[in-house]
Write a structure and sequence with these properties.
Helices cover 29% and strands 20% of the residues. It has 453 residues and is α/β, with parallel strands linked by helices.
Length: 453
């Protein structure tokens, strides 16, 4: 049995409480005590279900047995952690909905620190040419994904902290967008000072904005492409760095302006197109180890469906030889959350990251259909046009669902309304397990209400 320690370091360093980590036992013990449940079968009649009999009767593949109440079926939240979008406080009710409920994401604060450091390291290494107009001010613009999304908040804070532009608000780094700040007077940020080779430079956040389109979709790449057009036409010469909360928006700005103007642009996600663009001047990105996250998303469901220890094929090698090492993920029992760890992808190492949809080798072995019969999973992607989720995460899930014998139905949302997705969860009785990616992190109850019915 491996124990995993959840480090508090990054949360403390960033001064945020979004991921309130504590120590944890690293794995949950086998839960072999099953209780009888009364549920409705498809015809609406009360049926007695006993999870012990379920494992024997259920190995017929394809359909959900209907014997387990929807509220007792394995549930994984992923990519958007149930939490209060203003305070970041975790939604423990959603995270502990039933004994087989988990969250899978990545360590937002560790990744945010890495992104900030990657940008400041780049500036230091290129100090002789970074200040394009020679005014002594290193200016950057920042594309913000979603002001209510903890990943987005953490990344904004990470960049501001590393560049010295952060100011505190209520004990945390302020992550509000500034609009334009070409004169350095905005209150949500301050001018940073950077000392390199005995010379002091000013670092200024010239502009930042939430990239939300008029229909309400956040992390919107097209909006970011338009924003860089507006910014560059009024103060283009002062922009020395473009930073973005993700690659979708980063690449849109790169293609619209910074590539041609040779302005290093930094994103997050290590999507294939962004990694390839490093060869053409994209400054760098962060891999959030989507290959590990996609595996964990489906693996926790597989384990719960099999009734085995949740750590199987994760910290403990399974019979096929799948296992993850401590350096790629951590587990917090208290938060019922698995977090993949991030890696910076720059000109130094990008060749190792050119295929973001390739399964992670240590967990790439097929499970035996005899002992892991096919089960049906309902899974949604909150926004079918989200660059990261559609071009990296979903292809990975599709690779792993075969290896784990899961028959996954993929539902793509519009990125704007929860009901667009929940409307398509009309018959949860047809599925054995659920993987949910909410539009807003506050909205877990709109899903659990359906499973409780
Ligand atoms: C990703 C973004 C993505 C968002 C969607 C984040 O973790 O980095 O690229 O748009 O999730 O929820």
């Amino acid at each position: 049995m491996k124990k995993k320690l959840v480090s508090m370091t990054m949360a403390v360093l960033l001064g945020v409480s979004l991921v309130a980590c504590g120590s944890d036992s690293g794995k949950k013990s086998d839960d072999t005590t099953k209780t009888d449940d009364t549920s409705k079968d498809d015809a609406g009649a009360d049926t007695k279900s006993d999870a012990d009999t379920k494992t024997e009767d259920d190995n017929t593949g394809g359909d959900a047995s209907g014997e387990v109440a929807n509220k007792d079926k394995p549930l994984v939240w992923y990519n958007r952690q149930p939490s209060n979008s203003s305070t970041g406080e975790l939604d423990q009710a959603a995270l502990t909905f039933n004994k087989d409920t988990y969250y899978v994401g990545f360590d937002a604060n560790q990744g945010a620190e890495l992104q900030g450091t990657m940008v400041s390291d780049y500036i230091k290494a290129n100090i002789d040419k970074i200040d394009r107009n020679g005014d002594g001010v290193i200016g950057y613009v920042l594309a913000i994904g979603d002001i209510g999304h903890n990943d987005s908040i953490a990344r904004t804070r990470g960049v501001r902290k590393a560049l010295g532009t952060a100011v505190e608000k209520d004990g945390n780094i302020n992550s509000d967008p500034v609009g334009t700040n070409t004169d350095g007077s905005a209150s949500a940020v301050q001018d940073g000072k950077l000392e390199v080779d005995g010379k002091t430079y000013t670092v200024r956040e010239l502009a930042s904005q939430e990239m939300k389109n008029s229909a309400g979709a956040t992390w919107d790449a097209a909006t970011a492409g338009n924003a860089i057009g507006t910014w560059s036409s009024s103060f283009g010469d002062s922009i020395d760095i473009v930073a973005s909360n993700n690659d979708g928006m980063g690449m849109s700005m790169f293609n619209a302006w910074s590539k041609e103007n040779k302005v290093p642009t930094f994103g997050y996600d290590a999507n294939n197109d962004a990694v390839a663009a490093i060869a053409e001047g994209y400054g760098g990105t962060i891999s959030q180890h989507a290959d590990v996250q996609a595996y964990l998303t489906l693996r926790v469901l597989r384990n719960a469906l099999d009734g085995v220890d949740i750590d199987t094929g994760i910290g403990t090698e399974d019979e096929a030889g799948n296992v993850l090492s401590d350096d790629v993920y951590k587990y917090s029992e208290e938060e019922r959350s698995y977090y993949a760890l991030n890696v910076a992808v720059t000109a130094d190492n990008y060749k190792d990251f050119t295929d973001s949809t390739k399964v992670f080798d240590p967990v790439s072995k097929q499970l035996d259909e005899g002992s892991h019969a096919t089960k049906k999973v309902w899974l949604n992607i909150y926004n079918a046009s989200d660059n990261f989720l559609s071009s990296t995460y979903q292809p990975l899930l599709q690779n792993y669902d075969d290896l784990l014998n899961l028959d996954v139905e993929y539902i793509g949302g519009d990125g704007q309304t929860e009901s667009n997705i929940t409307n398509r969860l009309g018959n949860p009785g047809q599925y054995d397990a659920f993987a949910i990616n909410m539009v807003k992190t506050d909205n877990a109850a709109s899903y659990t209400a359906l499973l409780n019915q």
